[in-house]
Amino acid sequence: MQLTRILTAVAALGLFSAALPAATPFVDAMPRAPALAPTPLPRGSIIPATGDSLPVANRVLVRKSERRLYLLRGTEVLRSYRVALGLNPEGHKEREGDFRTPEGVYRLVRRNPRSDFFLSMQVSYPDVQDVSHARRNGWAPGGAIMIHGLPNDPRKGHDYYATQDWTDGCIAVTNSDMLEIWMLVGDDTPIEIQP
User: What's this model's pTM, rounded to 2 decimal places?
Assistant: First the structure.
């Protein structure tokens, strides 16, 4: 059932056009394990999806120094992912072309299923303070900061994208991680990007 729901979401994004089967005979015919009583998870542990529902994050946290993105519901960690950042990851983004990933509290304001990368979700950078700081210095603040997957037309090998900071200032994850983030994070979700 969970696989069917994921495939339906992928199909709705237009990422493939194959018709979904009504059931998967092999999987659906397998005996199900007996349900276990839920056990409380310690604070900060990863919460698994249960049954037919996916956990929904109400906050995203990025810790640049850890190269990690966390999906949170309250104080509980739902998921954690390795990220790649801008080519010049130290410090807050100040201007267009500095290859830095911004730091601060923003929102995820727009989804793009047809970007140059495998899915993307736009971060609301620059905010009023970012624009003001850039203008005081005679700079353009930059923009189009996204959480996204890998390039649709990769110019480097897989190992490069898996081990290097390679974006112009965005937050990049694997395509499978991006699909999960896309499904677990709603529109207008707050995102905090820490050093």
Answer: 0.74
